[in-house]
Amino acid sequence: MAFAAPSQPFPNRIMRSAFIFSLVFIAVSGHETAAQCPGGKPALPGGECPSRNPLRSSCSILIEIIEKDGGEANGIFLKLNGSLNNYWRTNERGKFIFRRLSCRRSYTVTPARQDYSFDPPSFPIESLKGQAKVSFTATPRREVEPLPIQIPPTSICNPPASNPPEIIFGNPIASRIGSQTSECDQQKEKVYFNDYLLKGAVGGDIIHIEVRSPEASILIVQVIDKEGQSLNPEGHTATVESQIHSYILPEAFDYQVRITGTQNSQSDYQLSVIRKGLTDEAYKKQIALVNSTINGAGEGATNFFDSLNYQLDGLRSADNEIRVAADHKLKTTYEILERLAAIDSDNVQAHEMLSVIHQYYRKDSRAAAHERTLALQLNGEVRFRVRMGDDLFTAKGADKIERNREDCWLKIKDGIATCESLIKENGEIFQTTPGLLEKSRLTVSRSGLALKIYGTRKYFLGNDNGEARFETRAKDQFLIPLSDNKDETAAIHELILKLLEKK
Predict the structure, then answer these.
(1) Are β-strands 416-421 and 428-432 bridged in parallel, bridged antiparallel, or unpaired?
(2) What CATH number should be reported for the domain whose range is 59-140?
(3) What's the CA gap between 135 and 475, in Å, rounded?
(4) What is the CATH number of domain 166-278?
(5) Best label site of 215, 288, 456, 488, fewest CB within 10 Å?
(6) What is the pTM of this model?
C-alpha cells in the first residue's frame, strides 16, 4: 500500500512524530486491515484508543439540601466517604458539587451540622456514572445542646514532638490531623494529633487559641509547658464550627500546642493563636526590665526619663567606650519597648517611652508623633526636652532663652502642662492649666523655634541650713526645644492648643 505524498513538504522530525504518535496504526495482512494503538493494544470499535486509566476522574455528585419549611440550607458541611474539610459546604442556594470523582466507584455523602437533623442521614451511591444528584431535607433542631468542651488531662501521655512546625502569634494555619504512633501502651496504637511550637512568650502572656473545623466538638486543645504538663485553660467557648480556649503562659518559654482528635480519625481544621496582652504583673515586670536596661548599675537615675537623659548625654561623650555603651543600652531598650507595645498595645507606658526614644535617640519624628497620638488616646502623657526662661533674645536670626533659664522635661497630660527640671533636686519648676493658658496668647516666635506660654514658675533662691529655698510667680515663660527643632515647637504648640479645646 502506497502513501500519497503531501502537498507541502514536512520536516523529517514532524513526519516521524506523525507516524509514531498516530492514534491508530494500520497494518496490512493479505486483504484485511487491523487497527492497533500504542503498545499493541487493539482499538475500540469506533477507532479510538482506550484510556490508560479505565476509571477516569470525570464524574461528579450534585448535592442539594433544603430546609423542611422550603428554605435553602446554607453552610451545611458535607462528608464524602467519611472525609470532611472546611471547604465542602453548601452555598447560599443550598447546593454543592463534588467534581473530578473517579467513575464506577462507590461513594457515601453525609451532611453534618449540629443544629440540624437530616433526612436521609446519609446517601450511598453505587458505581458512580456521569453526575449523580442527591437531595437532603434539613430540619432545624428546636434546642441545640451546648457543644461539649473536652478538658484535657494535665499529664501528657505522648511526649511532645521533637521538631514540630512553628505557629506564629496572629498567623492562622490550616492542616489535617495525622496519625501518630502512641507511646501510651505496649501495642503502639495509632492516635491522631498534631503538635506545634509556639515561640515568643515573655511570661504572663494572655492568649486565645481558636480551632475552626466542621468537627470542632471532637477536637482537644492542649498547651504543654516545659515540664511536659498540660496547662489548665482560663476559659473556653464553643460554637457549631469553632472552639476558643484562653490561657495564661506563666513564663518565657517555647510552648507546644497540641490538637488531638477524640475519634481517632483525620479531621481538617484551621488553628490560630492570638496574643491578647499581658497580665498586670507581667507588664510591670517588662517595665522593670526596661528601666534596668536603660539605667544600669550605679548611675543613680530614679526613673526612665532620668536614665534617658543620662544615656543621651553619653552619646555625646568624647570617650568612645561611653558612647558605645550608651548606644547599646538605648538600642536594647528600644527593642524591648517595641516588643512590649506590640504584645500589649492597650497599655500606655510603652507608648509614652517609645515616643521619646523615637524623638531623641532614633531621630524619627514621624514615629514619635505616632506614639504620642497613641499615648494621648490611652489618657497617657507626652514629653519634650526644652529650655525654659523669663526672656527671649534674638540675634542674627537665632532665638536664645535668657534669665533664669533651666532645662526640663515639658510634660503634657490631663489638661495640664508641667516642666520637670533635668536637675533632679529641683523637681517640677513650671505648671500651667487651661485657665492660665487662656491668659496667654501662646505665641510662636517669628523664627518658629520659641514658644511663649503663661503659667506658674518656681525659682531657686538658695540654700538655708542645707535646704533649698524656692519662690513661685505666675508669668510668661519662653521655651525652646533642646534639639532646636522647629517641628517640635509646632508639635508642642498644637498639643497645648488641644488642652484648651478640651476645657
Answers:
(1) antiparallel
(2) 2.60.40.10
(3) 86
(4) 2.60.120.380
(5) 288
(6) 0.68
